[in-house]
Amino acid sequence: MTAFALTFIGVFTLPRLPSPFNFTVLVPPVLLAMVIVYEGGSLPGLGISRQLRLALTLWIGFGVLVLLAGIVFAGSNSSLSIAAIAIASVLMSAGVITIAVIHRRQARQAQTTAKPARSDSDTTPA
User: CA 54 from chain center: how many Å?
Assistant: First the structure.
């Protein structure tokens, strides 16, 4: 809720700042995206560890910052806008794929350690 309020207030106040500081308007939407990703990872049934959620949140936040900065600095140049979208997409996809691989390894490792070891008496036919 706080991130949404910061984004809403930032849209109206930050662009009116002097020239070097008016680019801080990019920060509240990045924070909002990071909060959504972090809190969405804690939904029941997902089982993503806190460290993985934090890593994904920081990486997606970086991707959103690259996207917004690229669009703002591109202005009316469509080639730069497309390049910013492509770079941000690659960054975000790489982060999501990496987190998925790490999560799959952790889940597989937890599954193998949770299985009881089979004894020879369990494998002999009756």
Answer: 8
